[in-house]
């Protein structure tokens, strides 16, 4: 398959976003990418995974905080599941949010990854929350495929800039300011001189952001743009950098993106 496939599974309270993608790699290689902290950071967000049923599963979402979970299924290299019981905050009674990832070999060096995220029961009142996960998981699995295709096994360093505007303030047109307003999948692009340096090939465009498979200032998968969070804009530049130069590049480039985002927010 050439892209991530998405649908909703809605039956007897099991309201879930389901996505699947074909990726290169053996089941053991794909398992390392979906079931270890460094592997998950390579395509999603920084994470910590205790490798056993009952173990901790923690993902770091920047300004949105950490999400704490517990592993409910650990069957390497084919099945991982975890529950996040407090996904709405510790004082809000909600059914646990469950995510399951399945790995199935198609050939000796190709697998299908199927991710299902939502509720095992009691999800009837949370349809909007499930709908909101669609684009996020689509982008994450697309990044998984890009990582395994081009960068598998390389060291990972996360660039994470999320500049939150004052409450109720919408985000400016970040793509226009970066010179990426006309960026489309498959195009080779680079940011304008007034923005931090970024060059590469557009992997995807969704909403008000683009995801670029970067070649400069180093290799990586960087999303640039903005999102709205409870009516408040967030300017972002985020994603994994690959290779041994990642830490040095982040040390130089993250302050540049933070300064640029703050200046853009003040205009």
Strands, helices and their partners?
Elements: E1 5-11, E2 14-24, H1 27-34, H2 37-41, E3 47-49, E4 56-60, E5 66-75, E6 79-84, E7 97-107, E8 110-118, H3 127-151, E9 156-164, H4 174-178, E10 188-190, E11 199-206, E12 209-216, E13 220-229, E14 232-242, H5 246-266
Antiparallel strand pairs: 1-2, 2-8, 3-4, 4-5, 5-6, 6-7, 7-8, 9-14, 10-11, 11-12, 12-13, 13-14
Architecture overview:
The chain has 267 residues and is of the alpha+beta class. Helices cover 24% and strands 42% of the residues. The chain has 5 helices and 14 strands. The strands form 2 sheets. An 8-stranded antiparallel β-sheet has the order 1-2-8-7-6-5-4-3. Strands 9-14-13-12-11-10 form a 6-stranded antiparallel β-sheet, sandwiched between helices. The chain is globular and about 50 Å long. The N and C termini lie far apart (43 Å).
